[in-house]
């Protein structure tokens, strides 16, 4: 067992941290206030190769692997969970191309995704189906050389910034038959709808996608008809959950830094509050949560890199790290006393952002179901 | 215009953003837990070289004298965009002052050969003497200019420079090959990109010892260093305050204190 980073991973961490501090940090306040997505930052990230990590070299990517992706998300989210979330979903949007697209589709889309010239997302959720995606009602009817899509997606990350969207829709009367399509910005009959007003992740757009007789050429079908849910769920369970854990790691690290800073600097009765056991216990808890979340996430990423089964491990990492982030953000706010709820301090932002980790890429209840189902199956002889 | 081969001198220094302790015996920074980073001004030097390369073509070679652990620093320099790196590393170089350091670096430059320009930072964040650049130039017999804030290609064989001085600025022209030392104002160094990081692993990084260079053993390391650091002190910026009630005794105490501190 080797727990050290490679020289490349160390450089990556250093480089991304520098980028986050230099380019992202000065914009956090503005994002909090305007809630606007910093598209110029996404473009700079693209030019710097952030979205190419997982893409094979022959499509202009870097082939650095899943752990590299986690390192990037952790470092970006340490400074801004909103930019981390947007990044994580750009990766999610790339995943179906890596895992299920045809050679022609890969050649057509991956090079521009690798450079960040095009940004991606995945659209599954609808008002009638979140945790249970079989509730999806958006349908795709085949007409000649095209599919005609009709329906609405909600809660889609990067809804207004994404250029290339993997959309899951019904292609038959069979209640369990869905297909995945590549929809591009500008296709007739497709437009983004409303932007949600969220308690956290300000600066990361979550919104609606509207398909009204949207014409999608047949060559934009990913895989076969009927493969849709499998394709989307593989992307969500391996890349999406991995990404959410990465964002949680960033929030946890930021909790630890903010908590330690305040505990050392806040002087009461001539002594810093860090002398109190109650404060120390919270700091120890945050540290333990960060370290264990890291181990779970890095190991799951390692399994993914080795091509081994990793969906349950990512469910565990996602569940543990995101729940830990919510609890630790509360502990951080608690350490700050009244200052914790003041908008001038980062603590309240961590608290608001952390809760958004829970529903994204499947709620904790759903992770529990995945984990329990696998455990029960293994128990059966 | 012809492409330029630029050598950039890069010094690995302790990361002064983390707390740094000094060893009073050896008069050096305790390297123990302190991370090593690229001397900040050397990032400006590198950026200046990369910009010249982007404008005129050519090659950027990084040069450093440091212990073997500095390899990772040079790998970072390659990730920023340098094409090749040389690490001059030998136990015999330990304890070099600026004279000996500059001598070794000059021998390194001679080994690399065929260069048009050497760029160094104006000063390091640890030694901070601002001597090494000009000394390297003198060893090599090159024209040199320090504290450069702007560099332009003036002709095939010369550069136009703006230099910062205490009185103002100087506009100068310098013939190539030359050496310049750069100030922070010259540019805003780029951030590390992933394409660069991925490319760095395959770029040549050579580690050379004294046997690979033509160095006179008497001129390197402690032996070749006439400088002795007599004392090293930490400056504390903590403000002191004492409250005294206004009795005559207190006032005389205050006056006494002021005398002790040399304030009056
Ligand atoms: C910030 C953010 C970003 C998102 N980004 C995207 C995106 O890019 N693409 C996309 O497709 N979707 C996205 N989503 C949607 C997300 O995947 C869904 O919100 C999530 O799957 C939950 O679905 P729901 O909101 O419909 O809740 P529901 O499914 O209605 O769940 C309501 C409650 O019931 C519980 N529950 C549901 N089923 C069960 C069960 N079987 N057993 C026990 N409890 C259950 C849930 O845990 C939850 O507590 C995003 C959501 C958020 C908040
Ligand atoms: C606290 C302290 C005080 C010191 N005082 C003195 C002193 O008074 N006199 C003295 O002779 N020495 C002194 N030294 C030793 C001196 O720091 C080293 O000899 C060092 O190798 C070069 O000097 P500098 O750091 O001052 O470089 P500077 O001249 O400040 O550095 C300017 C530029 O030269 C280049 N450069 C410098 N060193 C290297 C290197 N090793 N490899 C590649 N490029 C390099 C870099 O581009 C750098 O930006 C001192 C060291 C310390 C830690």
Describe the structure.
- The complex is a heterodimer of chains A (381) and B (264).
- Chain A has 381 residues and is an alpha+beta fold.
- In chain A, 52% of the residues lie in helices and 15% in strands.
- In chain A, the strands form 3 sheets. In chain A, strands 1-4-5-8 form a 4-stranded mixed beta sheet. In chain A, strands 2-3-7-6 form a 4-stranded antiparallel beta sheet, covered by helices on one side.
- In chain A, a hairpin with a 2-residue loop joins strand 2 (139-143) and strand 3.
- In chain A, helix 7 runs antiparallel to helix 8 (277-305) and helix 9 packs across helix 11 (364-379).
- Chain B has a single domain (4-219), classed as HUPs (Rossmann fold), CATH 3.40.50.620.
- Chain B is 27% helix and 26% strand.
- In chain B, helix 2 (71-80) crosses helix 5.
- The model of chain B has no long low-confidence stretch (mean pLDDT 92).
- The A-B interface holds A 7-8, 10-12, 14-16, 18-19, 22-23, 47-50, 52-53, 62, 64 and B 72, 75-76, 79, 191-198, 200-201.
């Amino acid at each position: 067992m080797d727990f050290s980073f490679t020289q490349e991973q160390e450089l990556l961490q250093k480089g991304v941290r520098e980028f986050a501090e230099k380019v992202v940090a000065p914009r956090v306040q503005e994002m909090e206030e305007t809630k606007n997505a910093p598209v110029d930052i996404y473009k700079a990230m693209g030019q710097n190769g952030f979205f190419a990590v997982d893409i094979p070299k022959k499509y202009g990517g870097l082939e650095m692997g899943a752990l590299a992706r986690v390192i990037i998300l952790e470092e970006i989210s340490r400074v801004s969970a909103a930019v981390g979330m947007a990044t994580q979903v750009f990766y999610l949007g790339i995943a179906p191309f890596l895992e299920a697209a045809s050679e022609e589709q890969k050649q057509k889309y991956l090079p521009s995704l690798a450079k960040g010239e095009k940004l991606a997302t995945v659209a599954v959720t609808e008002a009638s189906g979140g945790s249970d995606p079989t509730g999806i009602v958006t349908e795709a009817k085949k007409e000649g050389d095209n599919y005609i899509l009709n329906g609405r997606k909600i809660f889609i990350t990067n809804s207004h910034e994404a250029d290339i969207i993997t959309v899951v829709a019904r292609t038959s009367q069979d209640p369990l038959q869905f297909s995945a399509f590549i929809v591009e910005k500008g296709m007739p009959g497709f437009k983004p709808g409303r932007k949600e007003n969220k308690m956290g992740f300000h600066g990361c757009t979550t919104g609606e996608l509207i398909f009204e007789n949207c014409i999608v050429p047949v060559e934009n079908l990913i895989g076969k008809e009927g493969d849709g849910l499998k394709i989307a769920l593989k992307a969500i369970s391996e890349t999406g959950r991995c990404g959410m854990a990465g964002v949680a790691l960033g929030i946890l690290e930021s909790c630890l830094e903010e908590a330690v800073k305040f505990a050392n600097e806040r002087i009461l009765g001539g002594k810093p509050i860090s002398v109190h056991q109650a404060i120390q216990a919270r700091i120890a808890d945050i540290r333990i949560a960060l370290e264990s979340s890291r181990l779970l996430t890095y190991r799951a990423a390692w399994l993914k890199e080795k091509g081994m089964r990793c969906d349950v491990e990512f469910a565990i990492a996602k569940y543990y790290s995101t729940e830990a982030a919510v609890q630790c953000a509360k502990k951080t706010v608690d350490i700050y006393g009244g200052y914790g709820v003041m908008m001038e301090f980062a603590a309240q932002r961590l608290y608001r952002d952390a809760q958004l980790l829970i529903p994204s890429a499947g709620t904790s209840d759903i992770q529990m179901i995945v984990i329990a189902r696998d455990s029960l199956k293994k128990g059966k002889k | 215009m012809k492409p330029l081969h630029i050598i950039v001198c890069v010094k690995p220094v302790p990361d002064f953003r983390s707390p740094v302790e000094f060893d009073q015996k050896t008069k050096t920074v305790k390297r123990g837990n302190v991370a090593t980073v690229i001397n900040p001004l050397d990032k400006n030097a590198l950026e200046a070289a990369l910009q010249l390369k982007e404008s005129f073509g050519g090659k950027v070679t990084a040069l450093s004298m440091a212990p073997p652990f500095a390899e990772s620093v040079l790998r970072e320099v390659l990730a920023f965009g340098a094409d090749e790196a040389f690490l001059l590393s030998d136990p015999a170089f330990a304890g070099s002052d600026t004279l000996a350091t500059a001598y070794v670096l000059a021998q390194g430059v001679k080994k690399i050969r065929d260069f048009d320009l050497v760029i160094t930072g104006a000063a390091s964040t640890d030694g901070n003497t601002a001597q090494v650049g000009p000394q390297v130039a003198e060893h090599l017999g090159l024209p040199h200019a320090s504290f450069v804030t702007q560099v332009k290609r003036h002709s095939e064989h010369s550069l136009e420079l703006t230099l910062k001085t205490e009185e103002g600025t100087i506009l100068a022209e310098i013939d190539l090959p030359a050496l310049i030392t750069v100030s922070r104002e010259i540019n805003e160094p780029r951030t590390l990109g992933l394409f660069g990081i991925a490319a760095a692993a395959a770029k040549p990084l050579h580690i050379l010892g004294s046997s690979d260079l033509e160095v006179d053993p008497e001129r390197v390391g402690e032996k070749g260093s006439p400088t002795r650091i007599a004392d090293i002190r930490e400056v504390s910026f903590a403000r002191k305050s004492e409250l005294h009630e206004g009795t005559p005794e207190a006032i005389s105490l205050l006056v006494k204190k002021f005398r002790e501190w040399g304030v009056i």
